[in-house]
Amino acid sequence: PSMRTPTEMIVGLVLCPCGLLLTLTGTLAPSWRQVSLVPDQPMDVVWEQGIWDICRERQSTHDRLCGQADEMGYFEQVPVRVAQGLMPSSLVVTLVGLVVAALGVRCWQPEPRHLVA
């Protein structure tokens, strides 16, 4: 007989890809923080620092250049190094969780089989 999938499982399977997409966006985003009023730089220059890249933008002309050299030691800071490890790890764990959840929903039964569990 066909069984209905519980609402909680359906909601979980919908929210998990949403979380995966948001984590991917956060991992690849070039602007985790913005730094302005940097000494020896024009007043309208804003530095956008992500966990993989640094971009420099002039607000007056909206010229944006990415791949800038890390002159301020941003990538050596501990929080950035930790984020460089944790964000891709989070993507992998979320993807594994999605696969396991999808398999769990596919194999779900109201009474557990104790030999399998």
Written description of the protein model:
The chain has 117 residues and is α+β, with helices and mostly antiparallel strands. It has one domain. It is built from two helices and four strands. Helix 1 (7-28) runs antiparallel to helix 2. The model has no long low-confidence stretch (mean pLDDT 85).
Number of domains: 1
* Main beta sheet strand tally, sense and closure: 4 strands, antiparallel
On the 0 to 100 scale, the average pLDDT is 85
> Which class do the helix and strand fractions yield?
alpha+beta
Order of the strands making up the biggest sheet: 1-2-3-4
Number of helices: 2
Radius of gyration: 22 Å
Helix content: 40-55%
Q: What characteristic shape results from the CA principal axes? A: elongated
N/C terminus separation? 22 Å
- Using DSSP, what is the number of strands? 4
Oligomer: single chain
Membrane topology: Multi-pass membrane protein
Subcellular location: Cell junction, Tight junction; Cell membrane
Transmembrane segments: 86-105
GO molecular function: structural molecule activity
Topology (SSEs and partners):
Layout: H1 7-28, E1 33-36, E2 45-49, E3 54-58, E4 63-66, H2 78-106
Antiparallel strand pairs: 1-2, 2-3, 3-4
Helix pairs in contact: 1-2
Keywords:
117 residues; alpha+beta; 4-stranded antiparallel beta sheet; 2 helices; 15% strand
Brief summary:
The chain is α+β, with helices and mostly antiparallel strands. It has helices at residues 7-28, 78-106; strands at 33-36, 45-49, 54-58, 63-66.
